[in-house]
Each structure stands twice: as C-alpha cells, then as structure tokens.
C-alpha cells in the first residue's frame, strides 16, 4: 500500500473515532444500560436539532387511548433558566443545566373520572423515552420530580403556565462533565414468574 493511502486511512479512522457519530452509542441495549442520572454538565449548548430529536423520541411513547396529553416547555436561555431557578427547588441544577424540558400534562386532554391520572403514565413514558434519547445523543440528563408534590404548583406558577397545564417533572440535560457510571439494578428477586 502506498504511504499516502495508508496515511489517508489513518486520518479517516481518527476522524471517525472523534466524530459525534462514533461517540454516540445508538445500539438499543447500550443506550438502555448506559442511561443514568447525570447532574453535572459542561458549559456547552445543546443543538436545537438534537433537542427536537429528543422530543420526537418523547412523542413516540404510548398513551392511553392515544390521547397524547403531553406538552413540553423547552428552556435553554440562561436568563429564563435563572429566573426559574430563583423561584423553585433544585435551583442550582436548573441554573447549571444547558437545557431543560418541563414535561407537562394538559388537563383539558386528560380523561374524566378515575382514568384522569393516566396522564401521569403517558407523560412518564414520554419522559423515559426522552432520557434514553438524551443518552443516545451522548448527552446526560436527570429527571427532577414535580407532580404530585408541591413543586409542581411552584413550577407552574414560576413559569406562568395556563391553568390546565400541570408540570410532571423537569428534565435537565447537557454534555456530561464526567463519564457517567450506570448503576446495576438487576435484582431477580423482584421478579415473580407465573405466580406470585
Ligand atoms: C419520579 C422521579 C423523581 C426524581 N426526582 C429527582 C430529583 O428531584 N432530583 C434528582 O437529583 N434526581 C431525581 N430523580 C432521579 C433519581 O434519583 C434516579 O433516577 C435514581 O437515583 C436512580 O439512578 P439512575 O437514574 O442513575 O439509574 C428522580 C427520578 C424519578 C423517576
């Protein structure tokens, strides 16, 4: 092989190894296993196209009767994040996270009666898809709880949300500061086969 061809291959391999494609592990099982809560981020913005992909994953989740009662508020602007951080708990993390998604339920799209709380399951399914998509993109995120605690109302009021909109959680994400280490949570004793 010519020296120049050899050099070209080496350069191409180096480019591939450092590209975001190579860094982002998009194999399903790797993404599921690598997802872990990340609470510290680099001071580096997340591209809007990536956030849209992440939201697309969220909206791919199943919902009761396909109601899709979810609404998402994306905040990347530091001024807006700081304003929210000043008014609600976990403010320090909100301030430092380059991007946040407030996952909300729209009560005007929720079921009447005892099926009302299906919105929580619907929006939780979307939230997990969002966290997996964040991982697949080589980003790291954390779900911070809101509903059913009083933090939900605090976030609602701090953001001036419409009356029918209830925040379920705030997902904070960005490029991880350190390499995240997922926990091993496999416990066969939590499984019952055929009969309890
Ligand atoms: C409903 C819910 C609420 C959570 N609230 C918070 C929170 O307020 N602050 C936080 O740092 N992490 C929060 N987490 C993340 C959990 O602490 C985390 O998922 C758990 O410790 C397991 O770790 P892992 O995500 O790395 O597997 C929450 C997770 C869920 C599902």
Question: What this model shows, in words?
Answer:
The protein is of the alpha+beta class. The protein has one domain (25-177): NADH Oxidase, CATH 3.40.109. 42% of the residues lie in helices and 15% in strands. The protein contains 8 helices and 4 strands. It has helices at 3-18, 20-23, 28-34, 48-58, 78-87, 91-96, 118-136, 150-158, and strands spanning 70-75, 99-106, 140-145, 165-174. Strands 1-2-4-3 form a 4-stranded antiparallel beta sheet, with helices on both faces. Helix 4 packs across helix 7 (118-136). It binds flavin mononucleotide (FMN). Residues 36-37, 39, 90, 142-145, 183 line the site of flavin mononucleotide.
Brief summary of the model shown:
About 40% of the residues lie in helices and about 15% in strands.
Note the topology.
Elements: H1 3-18, H2 20-23, H3 28-34, H4 48-58, E1 70-75, H5 78-87, H6 91-96, E2 99-106, H7 118-136, E3 140-145, H8 150-158, E4 165-174
Antiparallel strand pairs: 1-2, 2-4, 3-4
Bound molecules: flavin mononucleotide.
The site of flavin mononucleotide has 9 residues, from β3.
Order of helices and strands: HHHHEHHEHEHE
Strands in their spatial order, largest beta sheet: 1-2-4-3
**CATH architecture descriptor:** 3-Layer(aba) Sandwich
CATH topology: NADH Oxidase
Helical segment count: 8
Major sheet? 4 strands, antiparallel
| Shape type | globular
Q: Helicity range of the residues? A: 40-55%
Poorly predicted parts: 15-23
Class computed from helices, strands and strand pairing? alpha+beta
**Molecules bound to protein:** flavin mononucleotide
Mean pLDDT reading: 91
Assembly classification? single chain
- Distance between termini? 65 Å
How many domains? The number is: 1
| Total beta strands | 4
Q: What is the class in the CATH system?
A: Alpha Beta
CATH H level, superfamily name: NADH Oxidase
- Percent strand: 15-25%
| Rg of Cα set | 20 Å
């Amino acid at each position: 092989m010519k020296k120049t061809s050899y050099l070209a291959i080496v350069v191409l391999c180096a480019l591939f190894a450092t590209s975001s494609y190579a860094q982002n592990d998009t194999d399903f099982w790797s993404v599921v296993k690598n997802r872990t809560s990340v609470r510290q981020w680099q001071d580096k913005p997340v591209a809007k196209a990536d956030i849209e992909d992440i939201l697309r994953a969220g909206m791919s989740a199943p919902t009761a009767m396909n109601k899709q009662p979810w609404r998402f508020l994306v905040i990347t602007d530091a001024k807006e994040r700081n304003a929210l951080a000043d008014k609600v708990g976990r403010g320090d993390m909100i301030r430092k996270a380059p991007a946040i998604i407030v996952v909300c339920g729209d009560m005007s799209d929720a079921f009447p009666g005892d099926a009302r709380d299906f919105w929580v399951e619907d929006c939780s399914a979307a939230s997990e898809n969002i966290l997996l998509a964040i991982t697949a993109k080589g980003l790291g995120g954390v779900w911070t709880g809101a509903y059913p605690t009083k933090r939900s109302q605090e976030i609602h009021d701090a953001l001036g949300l419409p009356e029918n909109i209830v925040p379920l959680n705030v997902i904070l994400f960005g490029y991880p500061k350190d390499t995240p280490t997922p926990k091993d949570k496999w416990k066969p004793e939590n499984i019952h086969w055929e009969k309890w």
